[in-house]
Recover the amino acids of this structure.
C-alpha cells in the first residue's frame, strides 16, 4: 500500500479501533511504551516506518531521511534514555522539508517551542535541554531496525499514532487491519448514537442474556459481543 493510500485508509481510524482489530484478527499488538506521547493534542500520524538507531550523532537521522520516501515516519531508537535529548528542531525541520509524515522517538527531544510551531507530528518521552555528550560507533543495522520499548520495528512496518499512543503494524496486513478496524469504528459510533437517543449500552448488547449465558455455559463477554454484533472490547 503506497503512502497516499495508507494515509487515506487510516485517516478516520484511531489507535483504539486498530488495537481492537488486531485482537479480533489474532495479530500481536505492538505498541510504543505509554511514556511516548505526542507533543500536541489532536495528533494523528500514519506512515511507513523509517528506523534509525541513535549513537550520539544526528548523522544517522540525516542518512535515514536521505533514504526515506515522502510519507515515511522516522522511528528513532535512543534506548529510552532519560539523560539526553536526541532530536531537536533542525532534524525535525529536515524531516518535514523532505516530506516525512512525522517522528516517533524512543527517547527525549528538545527545542519544544520550535517543534510545536511545526506541522510535523512528533511523539517522544518528553523534553530535556541537553543533547548527547557521547559518540559511539554506528552499527551496521542502525538503519535497518529500531527497538521501541520491547518492539522491533523495520521498514516492513507502518506507524499509527494519535492521542492514545503509537502502534507498529505490518504493512502486508494494512488492508485487513483497516477493514476490521472500520467495522469496529462503525459499530461503536452506532452504539454511541443509540445511547444518546436513550438506549443504554446494556440493552444494546443484551447484557441480561450475557449474564444468563455466562452462568449457564461459561460464555465470556467477548464471545457474547461477537455473537450479538456489539463492540466495546474488540
Amino acid at each position: 500500500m503506497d503512502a497516499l493510500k495508507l494515509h487515506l485508509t487510516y485517516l478516520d481510524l484511531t489507535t483504539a479501533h486498530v488495537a481492537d482489530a488486531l485482537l479480533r484478527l489474532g495479530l500481536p499488538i505492538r505498541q510504543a511504551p505509554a511514556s511516548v506521547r505526542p507533543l500536541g493534542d489532536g495528533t494523528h500520524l500514519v506512515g511507513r516506518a523509517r528506523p534509525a538507531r541513535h549513537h550520539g550523532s544526528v548523522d544517522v537521522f540525516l542518512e535515514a531521511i536521505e533514504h526515506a520516501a515522502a510519507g515515511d515516519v522516522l522511528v528513532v531508537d535512543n534506548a529510552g534514555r532519560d539523560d539526553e535529548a536526541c532530536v531537536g528542531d533542525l532534524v525535525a525541520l529536515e524531516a518535514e522539508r523532505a516530506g516525512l509524515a512525522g517522528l516517533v522517538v524512543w527517547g527525549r527531544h528538545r527545542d519544544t517551542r520550535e517543534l510545536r510551531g511545526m506541522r510535523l507530528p512528533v511523539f517522544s518521552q518528553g523534553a530535556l535541554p541537553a543533547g548527547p555528550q557521547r559518540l559511539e560507533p554506528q552499527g551496521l543495522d542502525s538503519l535497518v531496525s529500531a527497538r521501541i520499548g520491547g518492539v522491533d520495528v523495520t521498514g516492513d512496518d507502518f506507524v499509527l499514532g494519535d492521542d492514545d499512543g503509537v502502534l507498529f503494524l505490518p504493512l502486508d496486513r494494512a488492508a485487513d487491519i483497516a477493514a476490521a478496524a472500520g467495522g469496529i469504528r462503525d459499530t461503536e459510533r452506532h452504539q454511541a448514537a443509540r445511547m444518546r437517543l436513550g438506549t443504554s449500552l446494556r440493552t444494546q448488547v443484551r447484557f441480561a442474556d450475557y449474564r444468563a449465558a455466562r452462568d449457564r455455559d461459561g460464555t465470556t463477554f467477548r464471545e457474547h459481543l461477537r455473537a450479538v454484533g456489539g463492540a466495546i472490547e474488540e
Notes: The chain has a mean pLDDT of 94.
